[in-house]
């Protein structure tokens, strides 16, 4: 495989154990150059361990890891020169200015003083922090700190960027600002691996998603394909709770799925099987044929929350910091 066609990130059969805990169990991952990959999974699934292995912070026990064409075990130094990493907590000195933080990062990466200063000015301007550049970081909002931390990882213009839950704890406006920054980086050709506890974030940003559970990938693909694979959700609200059973039979018959009945809300819902789309006119006719009076009928396309629940058996709220 030539360098031009080689993926930016490759993991094959990667295993990592911490004592009795198997953090990674044969994890496979491929991320093409210039794309955003969202890594999702419940607590303890192995997301952060995967990032740490890719960033050469821990060595795998078994398997192959390549980043930007370099073997992450045999050529760890080359990998470190090719990556940027923004972890779950901002790695900034709050007692100096934003500009000085970036300058410091540049000097640590062995940029000359003039080049480090120029790069700091360039990044502050590009990501709309120039006016705050000469303020102490302790005066920054949470969103501004996260943006500064993110762009600090870009001082050396790395082709591959690892973002480990970059928007955790941020308000919606700050989260939108980080999303815009990530989108700009991807549009500029940077390959991004993103772990996140916000499924909307993965849906908005990721070209492909890898769902990890118990240290292995259990599903891979674009968000649209993963959502299409689990079917749609159909719900019927009834005027008469006594007709819930009849409605459930109709929904199950048309969808091929098991209907769920909420007696208190007088609602029957079903998740259709792939390829068994339920058309509203057909559903209304079938309900009418058995005398069921519906107050409301709705078809909802699945969300990544539905994908996550279907694949892992856990609610999306269980997403979060993982070992």
UniProtKB/TrEMBL annotation:
Belongs to the ABC transporter superfamily. Drug exporter-1 (DrugE1) (TC 3.A.1.105) family. It is found in: Cell membrane. This is ABC-type xenobiotic transporter. It comes from the Bacteria. InterPro entries: AAA+_ATPase, ABC_transporter-like_ATP-bd, ABC_transporter-like_CS, ABC_transporter_ATP-binding, DrrA, P-loop_NTPase. GO terms for molecular function: ABC-type xenobiotic transporter activity; ATP binding; ATP hydrolysis activity. GO terms for biological process: daunorubicin transport; doxorubicin transport; response to antibiotic. GO terms for cellular component: plasma membrane. Its EC number is 7.6.2.2. Keywords: Antibiotic resistance, ATP-binding, Cell membrane, Membrane, Nucleotide-binding, Translocase, Transport. It is a peripheral membrane protein. Gene3D superfamilies: P-loop containing nucleotide triphosphate hydrolases (3.40.50.300). Residues 9-239 form the ABC transporter domain.
């Amino acid at each position: 495989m030539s360098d031009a066609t080689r993926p930016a990130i490759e993991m094959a059969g990667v295993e990592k154990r911490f004592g009795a805990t198997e953090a990674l169990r044969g994890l496979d991952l491929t991320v093409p150059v210039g794309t955003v990959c969202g890594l999702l999974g419940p607590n303890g699934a192995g997301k952060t361990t995967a990032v740490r292995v890719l960033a050469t912070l821990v060595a795998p026990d078994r398997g192959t890891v390549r980043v930007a064409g370099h073997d992450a075990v045999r050529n760890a130094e080359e990998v470190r020169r090719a990556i940027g990493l923004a972890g779950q907590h901002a790695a900034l000195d709050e007692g100096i200015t934003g500009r000085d933080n970036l300058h410091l990062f540049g000097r640590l990466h062995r940029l000359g003083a003039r080049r480090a200063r120029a790069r700091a000015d360039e990044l502050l301007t590009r990501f709309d922090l120039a006016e705050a550049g000469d303020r102490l970081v302790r005066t920054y909002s949470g969103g501004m700190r996260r943006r500064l931390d993110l762009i600090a990882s870009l001082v050396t213009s790395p082709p591959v960027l690892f973002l480990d839950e970059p928007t955790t704890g941020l308000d919606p406006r700050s989260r939108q600002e980080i999303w815009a920054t990530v989108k700009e980086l991807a549009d500029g050709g940077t390959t991004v691996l993103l772990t996140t506890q916000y499924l909307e974030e993965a849906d908005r940003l990721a070209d492909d998603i890898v769902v990890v559970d118990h240290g292995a990938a259990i599903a891979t693909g674009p968000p649209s394909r993963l959502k299409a694979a689990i079917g749609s959700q159909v719900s019927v609200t009834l005027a008469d709770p006594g007709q819930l059973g009849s409605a459930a039979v109709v929904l199950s018959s048309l969808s091929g799925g098991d209907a769920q009945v909420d007696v208190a809300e007088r609602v029957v819902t079903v998740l259709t099987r792939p390829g068994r789309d339920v058309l509203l006119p057909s559903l209304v006719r079938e309900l009418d044929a058995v005398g069921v009076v519906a107050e409301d009928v709705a078809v909802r396309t699945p969300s990544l929350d539905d994908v996550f629940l279907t694949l892992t058996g856990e609610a999306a709220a269980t997403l979060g910091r993982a070992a």
